[in-house]
Amino acid sequence: MRRPMVAGNWKMNGNREMAGNLISEIDRGLSVELATSVEVLVCPPYVLLESTGALCSDTPMKLGAQNLDIHESGAFTGEISGPMLLDCGCEYVIVGHSERRALFGDTDELVGIKTRAAFEKGLVPIVCVGETQEEREKGVMANVVSRQLEAVFSETQGNVFPKALVAYEPVWAIGTGLTASEAQAQEVHALIRERLSQVSAEAADSTRILYGGSVKPENAEGLFGQPDIDGGLIGGASLHAQDFIDIISAAKS
Ligand code: PGA
What we know:
The protein has one domain: Aldolase class I (TIM Barrel, Alpha-Beta Barrel), CATH 3.20.20. The protein has 12 helices and 8 strands. It has helices at residues 16-29, 32-37, 49-56, 82-87, 98-103, 108-120, 133-137, 141-156, 182-196, 201-206, 217-224, 241-251, and strands spanning 5-9, 39-43, 62-65, 92-95, 124-129, 165-168, 209-212, 231-234. α11 packs parallel to α12. The radius of gyration is 17 Å and the shape is globular. The protein starts with a strand and ends with a helix. The relative contact order is 0.16. The structure holds 2-phosphoglycolic acid. Residues 9, 169, 174-175, 212-215, 233-237 line the site of 2-phosphoglycolic acid.
């Protein structure tokens, strides 16, 4: 039985005041029953990790980062390492988000190395994969997602799964208001699960695969009701407490 997760990716948004209000409002809406059945994660920007982690410590919410550097320490100006994230109270880290891939040069190989670096340091990676609009139109969606996963398998021998999560985030659905239909999302989630079976039967059965890309309270229940969708990675809607709570509620089985 895979426990669903709903993770909020705040991206480059927020400040300490906003984080304080948001965390306390979400906490008020999280009943014990809801928090028991759904794992809830927030991923604020680096500079808010420590203060948000302190706010989360009396709540069921867990803390994750949005990225990490592959090195442990040293002369890498502006970068943040896995051990630093652990020191701030992070349990999870998003790796290979499409914005990192498109804007900051995260190649398939680097995403694989980041996944390994995170896991080796004791963080749980949430590995993002997904195709662009153009790739979907060309009919190469399956090749792209498989290639992105293969790079992670080859850097890690796949042994990060089933502990690590995969997030399927079709790039054309991120922040655009467009969402994959339930059938489109389920098709790719099933493909990802099939690829995970190359690693092991346990990886295929137990790895949680999140859907991301314009998840809203209105579409969450239908998406999360699909057999291979185990929750969501939420961008815009995670900045609004009531929307985020409604999305968490939709993940409750
Ligand atoms: P969105 O972002 O929910 O705003 O589309 C999702 C993501 O990028 O993780």
